[in-house]
Amino acid sequence: MAPKKVEPKKAEVKKAEVKKEEVKKEEVKQEEVKQEAPPPPPPEAVVEFSPEQVEEFRDAFALFDETPGGDMKIRLAQVGGVLRALGHNPTNQEVLRLLGRPRAEELQASLLDFHSFLAVLQQASRDRDGTGTGGRGGLEDFVEGLRVFDKEGNGTVMGAELRHVLATLGEKLTEDEVDRLMAGQEDAAGHVNYSDFVKHILAG
User: Fold this and answer.
1) Alpha-carbon distance 139 to 160, whole Å?
2) Which of 22, 94, 160, 200 could form a disulfide bond with 90, CB atoms 3.0-4.6 angstroms apart?
3) Residues in Cβ contact with 70 at an 8 Å cutoff, skipping those fewer than 6 apart
4) What percent of the chain has a predicted confidence (pLDDT) above 70?
5) CA gap 45, 47 in Å, rounded
């Protein structure tokens, strides 16, 4: 009787060896890909605020809080005003970018709490420090900063509110310094034309 052929078994062994080699090659490729992957970028530097600064920011934020219960929340549309009150001079487009470019209806309807505002303020501080735009502003910058307190939109602010701003925000002034700056600036109703007031300060 003729012996049986075993060629099919050899073929199966060869196929198994080919599969093992393919698996090994695939594992090597994956390891190479892992090695070639770039390292993750370093985390962005965080601007550290002192407790005194946070308290100052909280005071400014509270001036814009219009919630009935004083919940320390503001509308997204007010964020630019708070930033300007704190000495930043972002354009409207820069404010929208900091907020993630919300829709127009979201600007009026969505609220931002103080903790979330601090994150926006940190980003604004990084941007300002990185671009060198944190220097002394001009007339329009100061006027824009006071315009946020113009509730009636008539070019004036309450003298009492302006005194509070001068005494509590930014480079805090003493009561005597505030009195000297405010001398002759209030009208009979206690209002101050803030554009004239800024010109008066810059001229002095």
Assistant:
1) 22
2) 94
3) 62
4) 66
5) 6
Three-state DSSP class for 44?
coil
Structural contact between residues 103 and 123, judged by C-beta atoms closer than 8 angstroms = no
CATH architecture of 47-134: Orthogonal Bundle (1.10)
Tokens of 190: 């206690």
pLDDT in tens, 28-45: 455 544 444 444 443 344
CA–CA distances in Å: residue 98 to residues 76, 79, 94, 118, 128: 11, 10, 6, 12, 12
Whole-model pTM above 0.70?
Answer: no
**What is the domain partition of the chain in residue ranges?**
47-134, 136-204
Burial per residue of 66-81, b for 16 or more beta-carbon CB atoms within 10 angstroms, e otherwise? eeeeeebbbbbbbbbb
Q: Is 60 exposed, middle or buried (0-12, 13-18, 19+ CB in 10 A)?
A: buried
Query: How far is Cα 151 from Cα 80, in angstroms, rounded to an integer?
Result: 15
CA angle 127/157/150 to nearest 5° reads: 55
Q: Report whether CATH 1.10.238.10 matches the domain 136-204.
A: yes
